[in-house]
Amino acid sequence: MTHVGRLMLGVVILSVLLSSRLSLSQQPPPPAPNQVTVSDVKVRMSDHGPVVLLQAEDKTLPIFVDMTVALSIQSALSGERLARPLSHDLMRTILDAYGGKVLQTVITRKDGTYYGALTVAVKDQVKTFDSRSSDSIALAIHFKAPIVVARDLFDSAAKLPEKGKGAEL
């Protein structure tokens, strides 16, 4: 999906969210026993391109992303502001302007593809949206929201971290 396509999708999502009212005091539900909450996120460059490393329970789940998402996540992690806003920066600015926030994202995998279930609250409405895992991770980091991974995915795909592998972005 192009940046313009993602931006258009973001505008549609916001217009749906703004059409109703629920309290923003709602918090994300605690992770279920079949879920793992990510404790740390890192972005690295690998031989296969940028990779986001989701860390929990002394294991790391690698998720490969495109360079734009990697830059967005890295800038959000470091607190660095880029010269021009990326799509995730724009979405955060729009949500902030309307009093919205990301509550959490849940990462799952089906048929070898990672998915994100991004939970967003605006005014009096809370909705969960299907998204690319990389986009939902980026937005969760921008809002300092929990990133949760399905336990079965984490147990099957996470690896023990390798020392010194991959360069930082």
Automatic annotation (TrEMBL):
Protein name: BFN domain-containing protein
Domain BFN: 33-161
Pfam families registered for this protein in UniProt: BFN_dom
PANTHER family for this protein: VON HIPPEL-LINDAU DISEASE TUMOR SUPPRESSOR, VON HIPPEL-LINDAU PROTEIN
Organism field: Nitrospira moscoviensis
GO molecular function: nuclease activity
InterPro entries, sorted: BFN_sf (IPR036104), Bi_nuclease_dom (IPR003729)
TM helices/strands, residue ranges: none
Lineage: Bacteria, Pseudomonadati, Nitrospirota, Nitrospiria, Nitrospirales
